[in-house]
């Protein structure tokens, strides 16, 4: 009979390949079994991180996510499936993880983490994984981990790049130490606006799981570093040595003024307000904009009307409206006069979500007069929704 300090025969078979590693052995496996990790976000980063934490034998895992599974998630969020569309991501991930390792205790939180509940959610767990994609939640998690004295393994990925950093571990900095001021909301793009290669989130998510395992088993060096990853680089990894925590940091520093209590902090306002929804909101309002149905009527009655698509060439190549001309926004903004024919009586601009087209229309409007210059409200997403449901959405 195995003692209570040992593993079951099934666990020996399951974890044997990692237990024979130098400096790992049975003691490290027992540490994993008695440890707990909470993962915030069961998306592109959270899915691979969860998969390997469960496979490695971490005894208790919490999963926090308020979002639901969409088909557009499946390119990178590998625990979900077509059959799970519409299901809460935390519940979907837990179902998939149970089929990998039924010995693990999974605790699901199918709701958002907030300043009011962050402490109670994170307190029972040893390590926190930040697998989210917005600055407000990153500051919230970092501040809470500072108060609770817990390490925070944070990952990020966009386009072909990713980064990894473990905050509040040893004498390492917290998130506020490195980023005292958040980026403006319009500059904090997500995968929806900027795109993402799915395997990049897999690399970063796996590294997050590895960081947690190293901390639990005592294999982590404890040196604060920021790991940068570029999928297209010959040398894809670059490690940046970080300083220790900043004495004047309002969260973890020992000097200066503290930012206040977490529950009373408006993290969204601190980060400049909600991220703009370019499909429904615009930079400019008024008659300078046109609805999808009205633009369709113009093109039907006057098919020769200039229609300029200001998306990057790669997106124009994915799909575009018949008769449209591709002039990327950067090129047009550099010299709008060269792209405008003074004899043109009307011109319309389109983009993906209806933001870049406004910038282009305003630039052309500034160098002409007496010409109808309008852009499509909601961009090509609105065209699909209101005019042609067969037009691709990406």
Question: What does the model show?
Answer:
The protein contains 15 helices and 13 strands. With 394 residues, the chain is of the alpha/beta class. It has 2 domains: 236 residues, Rossmann fold, CATH 3.40.50; 98 residues, Oxidized Rhodanese, domain 1 (3-Layer(aba) Sandwich), CATH 3.40.250. The strands form 2 sheets. An 8-stranded mixed sheet has the order 3-2-1-4-5-6-7-8, sandwiched between helices. Strands 9-13-12-10-11 form a 5-stranded parallel sheet. Helix 3 runs parallel beside helix 9. The longest helix is centred in the middle third of the chain and has 20 residues. The chain is elongated. The relative contact order is 0.10.
What is shown here, in short?
This protein is of the alpha/beta class. The chain has helices spanning 9-19, 25-33, 46-56, 89-100, 118-122, 135-148, 175-178, 191-194, 198-217, 267-270, 292-301, 313-318, 329-334, 356-365, 379-386; strands at 36-40, 60-64, 105-109, 127-130, 152-158, 161-167, 225-230, 237-241, 289-290, 307-309, 325-326, 346-350, 372-376.
Question: Helical proportion?
Answer: 25-40%
Summarize the biggest pleated sheet: 8 strands, mixed
Q: Please, how many domains?
A: 2
Strand order within the widest beta sheet: 3-2-1-4-5-6-7-8
Order of helices and strands: HHEHEHEHEHEEHHHEEHEHEHEHEHEH
Q: Report low-confidence residues grouped into runs of 5 or more.
A: none
